[in-house]
Amino acid sequence: MLLVLLVLALLAGGAAAYLYDLTRAPGAGGEKQPYTLEVKAGDTLAGAAARLQGAGVVRSGDVLRAVMRFRGTAGRLREGYYDLPAGLDAFQVAERLADTPRPRVRNVTIPEGKRLRDLPAIFAAAGLGDPAGLRDALNDASLSRYAKGTLEGFLFPATYPFRPEVSSAAIVQTLARRMGQEFTQERVAQARSLHLSIYGWVTLASMVQAEAASGAEMPTIAGIFLNRLDAGIALGADPTVAYGLGKDLNQLDRSAGDFRRDTPYNTYTRKGLPAGPINNPGEAALLSVLNAQRSTAQGKRALYFVHGRNGVIHVNSDYAAHLRDVARYR
Q1: Among 90, 131, 187, 280, which one has the highest count of C-beta atoms within 10 angstroms of its own C-beta?
Q2: For helices 198-211 and 218-231, angle between their N-to-C axes, nearest 10 degrees
Q3: Which of the listed ranges 27-31, 72-76, 307-311 does the model predict with the highest average pLDDT?
């Protein structure tokens, strides 16, 4: 019907110029901005064309549809994102809509070492999930066969593609399943040879993740913690104190007695591993525990380390030497 009306209009005097005007790019001169058309499952060409007209991308949605029908591309519209540069005319827009769109997903990156409490804001920034639903799911240990109490430590940090309408529970389940892939039979056997359960392995890896300034340091720090566990020496890790108090590391106040405040996570007041993971460690931290470097450069058992002001790590086998390095480098 629309094509018939257009033909009739062409037969009328002056209609050609009018129709040509409808196909031109609106806002000539660069006033318009690039536009991304989101097409959801079930959306129609008529609806998409109307949105493009409403957004000022084309002068007439009906003309855009007529162009695509004439070209035989009206049925090619697919779910996804169509990126439309500014200044396209109706024919160019029609050509773009006949092409393959970007997948309708939103990528979100979970950095290594983030705590559960950090994750809702990360997903909110990506427009995924809802804060309340995410908080509920993050505290549902049943979503992982390895977690206890909450999912802290058992959500793998990586970049994930999610459909915009994904539920909060599905988001968390995806991260938990991905972490489960790290627990291969071989790796679990290695952890057990170190007298670590999966939970203990992840807990120690989270401490390494928090303490290490780089991936290269991780095996050394893991080795020191393992040696201290074997020797019955308190691990003395500042990040565990911060976690137990609900603080960030830079908020710890020694003069206020933070390090003396006993919590299940304080590795100064209690020996052994803390009550559980203190963040979500990445693969490098997990593997560093299984491939730890447990000796100093002199071949002695590594028990202490300190980061100097220049970022270099200094490792010692005895406490007196450690104190000298603290005074010298920090």
Answers
A1: 280
A2: 130
A3: 72-76
Residues 86, 226: Cα–Cα separation, whole Å: 59
Q: Quick check: 310 pLDDT over 90?
A: no
As beta bridge partners, residue 107 has: 161
CA distances from 60 to 20, 49, 51, 84 (A): 11, 8, 10, 16
Which residues neighbour 289 within 8 Å (Cβ) at sequence distance 6 or greater?
Answer: 191, 194, 196, 201, 204, 205, 208, 222, 226
- Nearest Cα to Cα of residue 302 among 289, 288, 314, 286: 314
For 195-207, write each residue's pLDDT tens digit. Answer: 999 999 999 999 9
| 330 DSSP assignment | -
Strand partners, 82: 37
DSSP 282: -
Q: For residue range 1-32, what is the model confidence (pLDDT) as tens digits?
A: 444 445 444 434 444 444 555 666 676 544 56
Between CA 19 and CA 28, with CA 25 as vertex, the angle to 5 degrees is: 120
Summarize pLDDT for 224-241 with one digit per residue, the tens: 999 999 999 999 999 999
Decide if 64 contacts 44 (C-beta within 8 A).
Answer: no
As beta bridge partners, residue 316 has: 304
Tell me how far apart the alpha carbons of residues 170 and 180 are, in angstroms, rounded to a whole number: 15
The β-bridge partners of 80 are: 39
31 Cβ contact partners less than 8 Å away, ≥ 6 residues apart: none
Compute the distance between CA of residue 52 and CA of residue 199 in angstroms, rounded to an integer.
53
Q: Which two tokens stand for residue 158?
A: 């990586």
Single-letter code of the amino acid located at 261: R
Dump pLDDT digits (tens) for 158-197. 999 999 999 999 999 999 999 999 999 999 999 999 999 9
